[in-house]
Amino acid sequence: MARPAKFTEREVLDRATDLFWRDGCDAVSIRDLEVALELRAPSIYRRFSNKDQLIARCVDRYVEGVVGGRIRRFLDDADDPIDGLRSFFTSALEPFRGEDTPRGCLLTVTAGQAAFDAPEIRAAVVAGFALIEAALRTQVERAQAAGCMRDDIAVDAIASSLLVSFQGVLVLARSGSPGLSASIDATFAALAQCRRRR
Fold it and tell me: pTM for this structure?
């Protein structure tokens, strides 16, 4: 009789996601996964046909949980759209679960790995970036409608620029760069000043 699975699929994905996010998927070996998941390689491959599929599933789970959670908490629920954007950015500076430094973003980490060339991994990462950009676009539209930002600014261009800036903050936060909070404050103070100049 086969032994019952020690972890549910959700728990396996959470553990694998944590490992890929912390170390980068290129550095994670099957042996590393065996230790983290407390599963032998054949059991891993029975659940996921290969490592690329596991990484893609982990990216999807990260987007659903971490990225979606940040969007809901800091953007969707914000009364002031500029303050919501600022809070979304500064959330990237918070260490993960009591660690000493921020982890950055699994999407950003994975996009810089050789594994990103795998079609299913690339599709998962690109979908995650698209979700963030769409949320930023909605927030810019809210800001314009509330009179917090000039309405002659191209929404798509601003959303794209904010996505680039946010990813830069995540990379710099992961590397321990100082002064990011002041830079974020300056960025959104400048955006907020648009309403005062009109």
Answer: 0.90
